[in-house]
Fold Dihydroorotate dehydrogenase.
Amino acid sequence: MDAASLLRGNHKKGNIILSTVSGVGTTKDELIRLFDRSIPSVDIITTKSFQVTPNPGNREPIVCSPSPGNFGNSVGLRNPGMDVILPEIKALREDGLRAILNISLSASNPEDFITLVKAFDPYADMLELNFSCPHAAAGFGASIGNDAEIASSYVEAICKAYPERKALLIIKLTPNVPDIGTIAKAVIDKGADGIAAINTVGPKLYIEPHSEKPILNNKLGGKGGASGEWVREEALSCISAIRKAIGDEPIILGMGGVTRPEDARAMIEAGADSVGIGSALSRVNPQKWEDYFNAMKRGGDVSSLLTDDLPLQYTPHTVISKEMHKDVMILTITGSMDCKAGEFVFLWIPGKGEKPFSVAVNDPLTFLIKKRGAFTEALFELEPGDEVYTRGLSGKPMVYRKSAKALLIGGGTGSAVLPLIGDMLKKDGTEMDIRVGVVERENGKEPLEDVLSTYGKVMFVADDGKPGRVLDTITAEDVAGDTACYIVGPGKMMQKAAEILSSLGVADDSIYLSMEKNTMCGIGMCGECVCGGHLPCKEGTFFTWKTLKENKAEL
């Protein structure tokens, strides 16, 4: 069934048609394929918003939670740009999709929207134009949707420039206007097929209570859109007003605060033809997403699938010491955690940003940090007595097979994870052989050398111009007998190590790799960390070589 036949008039039929929403869940090719293949209760898959040119978006933090079930966010339309994403979208369509594909587009002028519509129209069932993002740069998002005349002129220009369009044209509107119905009618009258509503409410300012500083990091002074349960009533009110203004024929994609089956039913009754689920996904284990959507469609109980225990609160700490090793620093701060291998935390400096880091030592909290960009430079500038914050734990303790022996291989700052693996295996009485690759040897001891030596035999191997030289030291004798292998480091180094170990006879399900992908939200909302259809920020960073190969994960 095509999109128009499925959706048009469904608010009268009362069917629960479910959709993902832009920016949550189905943000990457891997996740789109996962939802299409494994979650049949999702009828419509919506992409993140794409632009003509790449947009790095806002720096982290990009999400916060002032209260359970309620969120503030400020991603800032982060996307790789049209030229990068078009081949992926084309491949998705060529491989075949079960679900209706709704491609979200963002621009600051009619000409760029026309370019995007022409480019993506051959592959889309629906094209959703973002006239609504409350924390986008000037000229984007709500800058367009706030004004009926501007919004309708954009739609008119697009429809005139590209009359052969086959995909439905959907306009996503902001609720942050006095009369959303008037704006909806204006864009429908100029040729739009439907409305998507609502986008996030706001922007609002979110203050972290300990520091009394804004959490979100953007050019709006930390203001971000509000999503989650606290916007549900406003969403229902907006949808009702839109339906009254545009009549029964145009399509309405409803969204905003939908968490439980009764919310979905209320949205249909208010006039929506489909129901989008966004922020609530962060409250559900990704391995239970299929169960959740099934229950949402059929009216089942979802209470056991939802959690309010999300790692979004900050804890203040004081810097105890920092130990410099060329471009690497060992940062020790007050406090302790019970972090396990597979888990991680975010370090946050108000006004500077946050990034995820592995905990090297739990008590006192110790981190191995390499200078890579603006935020790590800010960490390097910290002095004893300065304040820094942690958020977490994110991830999940790894599941592993106990073995008599273990080979631990680390590369670069990946060695920060090795002590937690050592703690885990030491309790099992496992004999450990630890190999760490470094760019060049230090005159004195290597970072964490004293800590690692407490777990077993330790060897540091300098690259000496050949990255990954440490892998040349691995022999069949090293992995003979009942041996499991744990690899932490850059992706290509881990892949090569896994291939070597597999060729030496180590079973693929006894080779564990730490997939520490780019992680931004830490709660399974943004999808940035996806790895072979899994989300390390929710499911843990360690996966077997067998799992990664089966899921064709990119290392």
Remarks:
- The longest helix spans residues 232-246.
- The mean pLDDT is 95.
- The longest strand covers residues 314-325.
